[in-house]
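Why should sequence recovery work at all? Because a backbone constrains its sequence more than one might expect. Tight turns favour small or flexible residues, buried strands favour hydrophobic ones, and helices have their own preferences. The token representation captures these environments compactly. In the example below, the structure is given first.
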């Protein structure tokens, strides 16, 4: 059995969980202007700052730049930018999300802040888990919404139907109500509670034990994203999974070796080209 076939069969059997980063929406474009959807750190900073670069130390990572502008213009400025970007702009559909919709995995992790993953499940009842930060009145750093096929309803982790497909968007999304993890202060609060066990529902802590992960379009050269990923995938199999990366840095290579991720030297497009449709896996296996 080839490595690709093994991974595809694991995805179809829900033994391997897609973990989606900004590369998954690299081909999404504004339906009005044709500009690319800002999703990676650099493009988000430029979009947030009217297309102008910020100081080099702020360009290093989006949370750092967002913190700078939050301090100057308020938290509502950053939240407003993300809401306008992902709720008020019409984007073309990413090829990856069409492929994923056909695969229809039971559990998906998506660190992007757009709603294309949720659109893939718009005709399917599911659970939506999103990260929250710097809120009072709760010890938890997540919200759970249950989708009944037409609308979302907020539920407690005890009320949630854990047999439904689970969409985990730790950095938030604009639907059903905008909420985002964005600035350094957000990440500090969220990661602290993630490490303490208060940012993941109890039913998901149980479900994730022994799973493997396929990181797609997911750079691992920044501490914030690595810390989130490491804690979300806690309890994984000893061989945690795979990451698609055609040009990993030495830092990424060392990190992946340390935590049990195997690097596959290909990007999302090349990976999808191996099997244009998930159903092809069955014919290959036969």
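From this structural description, the recovered sequence reads:
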């Amino acid at each position: 059995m080839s490595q690709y076939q093994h991974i595809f069969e694991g995805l179809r059997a829900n033994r391997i969980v897609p973990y989606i980063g900004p590369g998954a929406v690299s081909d999404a474009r504004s339906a009005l202007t044709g500009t690319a959807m800002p999703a990676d750190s650099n493009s988000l900073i430029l979009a947030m700052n009217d297309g102008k670069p910020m100081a080099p130390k702020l360009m290093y990572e989006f949370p750092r730049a967002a913190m700078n502008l939050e301090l100057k213009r308020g938290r509502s400025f950053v939240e407003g930018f993300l809401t306008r970007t992902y709720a008020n702009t019409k984007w073309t559909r990413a090829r990856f999300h069409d492929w994923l919709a056909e695969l229809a995995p039971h559990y998906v992790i998506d660190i992007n802040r757009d709603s294309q993953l949720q659109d893939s499940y718009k005709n399917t009842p599911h659970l939506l888990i999103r990260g929250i930060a710097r809120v009072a009145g709760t010890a938890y750093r997540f919200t759970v919404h249950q989708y009944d096929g037409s609308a979302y309803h907020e539920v407690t982790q005890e009320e949630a139907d854990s047999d439904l497909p689970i969409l985990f968007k730790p950095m938030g999304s604009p639907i059903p109500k905008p909420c985002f993890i964005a600035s350094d202060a957000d990440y500090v609060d969220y990661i602290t509670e993630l490490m303490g066990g208060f940012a993941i529902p109890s039913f998901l802590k149980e479900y994730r034990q022994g799973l493997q992960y396929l990181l797609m379009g997911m750079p691992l050269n920044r501490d914030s994203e690595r810390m989130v990923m490491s804690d979300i995938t806690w309890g994984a199999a000893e061989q945690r999974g795979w990451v698609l990366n055609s040009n990993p840095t030495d830092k990424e290579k060392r990190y992946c070796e340390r935590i049990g991720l195997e690097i596959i030297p290909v990007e999302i497009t090349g990976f999808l080209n191996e099997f244009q449709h998930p159903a092809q896996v069955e014919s290959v296996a036969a």
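A few observations help interpret the result. Residues 3-32+90-285 form one domain.
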